[in-house]
User: What shape does this take?
Amino acid sequence: MKRIEIGVINPKAEQQALMEWAARVDAGEAVPEGISKLNFVSFRQLHATLTEKRMELLGRIAQQDGLNIRQLAQELGRNYRNVYDDVQMLVELGLLEKRDGKLYAPYDEIVTRYSLRHAA
Assistant: This one.
């Protein structure tokens, strides 16, 4: 099962973690490949980007890989242009893939995380 973890991060903590990871790589340490991640700097940004309609769109594609935008708009009862814009955003984020004009969901599961306490 391929999954992506979506979260809200503290930019300073994320920068520190990235520097530590880079130092391990530079030292020749084998760093295992982890879960795919997509991070936002605020809960507001996460919800403004991954709206209910975009999440519904993702779910539909995951259930019916290979639809095109027109078919998707018809199935969801939405305006073509709005679906087109949402698809472009989701492709940009890596949550959808476009191949030969057809849409595919590269992940089977999306896990959303929000830490209430951040490490010092």
Remarks:
- The first strand starts at residue 3 and ends at 8.
- The chain has a mean pLDDT of 87.
